[in-house]
Amino acid sequence: MITVLDIGGRYGVHRSWKHFRLPIRYILCEADQEETQRLRGQQVDESLDGVEIEVLDAVVAGVGAEEILHVYASGDLSSLYELAPGVSYRYGQQRKVNEIVVKTTSLDELSRERSIEPHFLSIDAQGATLRILEGGRHVLEGALAIRCELEFFPMYVKAPLAHESMEYLSQAGYSMTRIEMCGPGFFGISSEMNRFSVSPWDARPSSCDAIFVNSRLVRGLLGKPAQNAFQLIYLISFLIHNGCGYLGIEYLSELSQKSTLDTVLGVVGPSDSQIFLSLVEAYLLIPRRNVNADFEGALVIRELLGERAGLITRLDNAVQSKIDAIYQTWTP
Q: Global pTM?
């Protein structure tokens, strides 16, 4: 089964994995023990059909050590780093409510000790992204893609900034495929208005969620598509669900030229094949704009899917609504 490791999963399964429909093992790590207990007790969300959820007591950082977790009144700001007073107009006066001594572990140590080999990583660790990546050299070699939060100015004292994480992932063979606003997931960068700002676009860039694909690994997988079809199908699905359909279909196009579609889909079975093909078709039928205004989605579907085109069952309403929201909220 495909494994997703979510580090800093305060609010549960990330929205990008909701309504995914293909079976996944989803592992949550959260530093705040109160939140960990809440996550274990929460009711199952119907949007998580097909998701096998585990919640771990683990504080992931660069190395194993005793450290201070700075807990703030707004729990989602809690971090191994302390907020820098006055640096952030929005959060600079946030009240610290507790300091907790925690035992940290590295990403690679967690992987070895818990027998976790994640295919996808989600990191929302309030300034600690680079430290987590640096402690996960082995994990990074085998992961297909990473979603992580990056900060553009030093909101946390001595916390690494976005360009440092970007450089590290580039050196590890990863390519950035998307930048989006934290929270809603719209394309772009989150910003911090001051009292003179006209709008969020007249404000200092503050942070983003960035999606990186392990290009080095994927090149190898595409070289032997029949043997690696399972991972490739999940990667393409992940990209479509995360606003990177452009790259997912590039991979599918290359994959379809090297192996028969029946061979590729045979590894996931008829039910999951139907989900995957419906997702691909739904993405290709979205109206294009700008330079792709004349894009003929139906024609591309026939080119990629052959005799299967026209026989695909429509996505269920929840998944269709999610795809529509990702790709059709942008306005020029």
A: 0.94
Residue 326 tokens read as 């990702």
- Other Cβ atoms closer than 10 A to 247: 21
228, two tokens: 């690696």
Which stretch of DSSP H or E encloses residue 179? strand 174-180
150 phi and psi angles, rounded to 5 deg:
-125, 145
- Alpha helix locations (H) across the chain? 33-41, 107-114, 129-134, 137-142, 162-171, 215-223, 225-241, 245-258, 261-265, 269-284, 297-305, 317-327
- Do 209 and 181 form a contact (C-beta atoms < 8 A)? yes
What 3-state class would DSSP assign to 64?
A: coil
What does the pLDDT look like over 287-297, one tens digit per residue?
Answer: 998 899 999 99
pLDDT value for 175: 98
| Cα(223)–Cα(204) distance, integer angstroms | 43
Round to whole Å and give the CA distance between 189 and 153: 13
Q: What is the pLDDT of residue 74?
A: 87
pLDDT at 332: 43
Using DSSP's 3-state secondary structure scheme, residue 66 falls into: strand
Using the predicted structure, report yes or no on whether residue 266 has a pLDDT greater than 60: yes
State the residue for tokens 């959820």.
Answer: 53
Residue 141 has pLDDT above 70, yes or no: yes
The pLDDT assigned to 20 comes to 95
Pairing mode of beta strands 2-7, 120-123:
parallel
Name the phi and psi angles at 316, rounded to 5. -65, 160
CATH number for the region 2-61+107-217 comes to: 3.40.50.150
* Beta strands 145-151; 204-214: pairing state: antiparallel
Helix (H, G, I), strand (E, B) or coil at 114: helix
When mean pLDDT is compared across 61-65, 122-126, 282-286, the lowest value belongs to 61-65
Cα dist. 326→94, 201, 213, 217, 225 in Å? 32, 20, 19, 26, 28
* Residue 227 neighbours by CB under 8 Å, 6+ apart: none
Q: How far apart are CA 49 and CA 191, in angstroms?
A: 34
Q: Where are the domains of the chain?
A: 2-61+107-217, 235-327
